[in-house]
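Data availability excerpt. The first of two example chains:
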Amino acid sequence: MANGPAPFSEIGRRARDLLYKDYNFDHKFTLSVPSSSGLGLTATGFKRDQYFVGDINSLYKSGNVTVDVKVDTYSNVSTKVTLNDVFHSKKVALSFNIPDHKSGKLDVQYLHPHAAIDSSIGLNPAPQLELSAAIGSKDVSMGAEVGFNTTSASFSKYNAGITFNKPDFSATLMLADKGETLKASYIHYVDRPDGLTVAAELAHRLSSSDNRFTIGASQSIDPKTVLKTRFSDDGKAAFQCQRAWRPNSLITLSAEYDSTKIFGSPAKFGLALALKP
């Protein structure tokens, strides 16, 4: 819903994306081939140290049905079938992996002008149950999520949060890690031609009273280049430069320096190339 709350997973996402999204300290290559017939193909290769893994993903859309099939280098096949608007404002998705016959899962999402509900159940004799809900509006919303393991009869997760959104800023307070961590995040969009945006996240561990602080910024160097920086209280500084060298094609350079690392190289570098003809 345009004026309704976003799903619980979206709470705090704006600040998380600025601080952590697309930071990659390995080598990654992605080639996407769209099609006017509704069938799109994406090939991804990922190199970490001396190991190389990859996958081929096909996405087919027809009407309100989307079929997503992914095959990786270990011959695992992941399939997800999504039906949008099955009923009013409802989305249903069925996913499973081959050869894992216990991996089936059914997801149902319902959007309402004042609520967003997501539920998931594993399609096996001892399913994992998950439920999340958010209530409010697009400006102010609060929500929670729980996960229950029927095998051990215990909660695998329970988190809660509240967010306040405006066009120029967003503030979020989260209780995460089964109530062990209190997180506060804030992102502000500065009214400048270069689109300067700053974000900060503070995490407080309730059981040990440990505090973690991360701050970052993003701005446009030119219409095709975005520069991001990130600093944290553990002595790490990260840098990212992303350039759209042609429409829908991106090259991303990431680097991180760890000032506390005594042995080994304190710096890490990564390169990601995404091509879309």
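And the second chain:
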Amino acid sequence: MEASADAGAAAAAASARTLRWAGRAGHLGGFPRAAVFAAVGAFAKAYASLLNTTTVHNADALLRLVSARPRGTPLLTISNHMSTVDDPLMWGFKGFPISDAKLGRWVLTAEDICFRNVVMSYMFRLGKCVPITRGGGIYQEHMNEALDVLINGDWLHSFPEGKIAQDDEPIRRLKWGTASLIVRAPVTPIVLPIVHSGFEKVMPENLFFGRRPPVPLWGKKIDIIIGDPIEFDMASLKQEASAVPHDSSSEKKGWPIITPDGLDEAAQRWLYQKMSDKIQSVMERLRKKLLNLKQH
């Protein structure tokens, strides 16, 4: 009973700290959210379009899906993660409606960085940020909140590498959270890959005595490439996953069985790994294509 009470108290404290109510569209008539998007949008436009040089390849693919995808169809964009300012600066390129709060993305953000106190929590909630607890697993309450975004047919952005990587290396092994959201969504989202470079120069991790600069830098070149949607035959994938032999030794997390598909933990692990490998492969091809474009 005491353990249950402690868990309940911890959940209540986390809920109070992350202020989910502030992220609702109708909060104070939507005016605080609109103000935040206008301010952040102006900041992103200034850095992406004026203070730095940004080149975007295949921008129409993103613009079309953000503003004119089928009603009720969620959009899940995924990208590499090179700095703390990737979002929102990556949406500040010319022609993108970054200041439109209704069209704006929801984004998964690190709770320990963006939700450290009430003021930060309130501002990031207004900016349509979903906190993710590091080490909390793919079935943590905040991931259920991210799933709600997709259930509502909205746009969600994820950094599936799970951490910042500023060296020019291949796409790293992806965390399974993104794949789990795709599987659990009632309507399979449109999954759009994005790869960028240059933000590691705008906000380097180790510039001043091993610390980030106080403000983003300028005079840098930013390159962004938007790929084609990644197709997943979910019916076939789930059928293959259901045939994976049950292995009780793999039940390390005590994951819930996914209904109505009835996928146990072993099946989920196989499925999430299979999908993550495909996403990683697509993103790596996109990274190499961007490198080639930059050299010509």
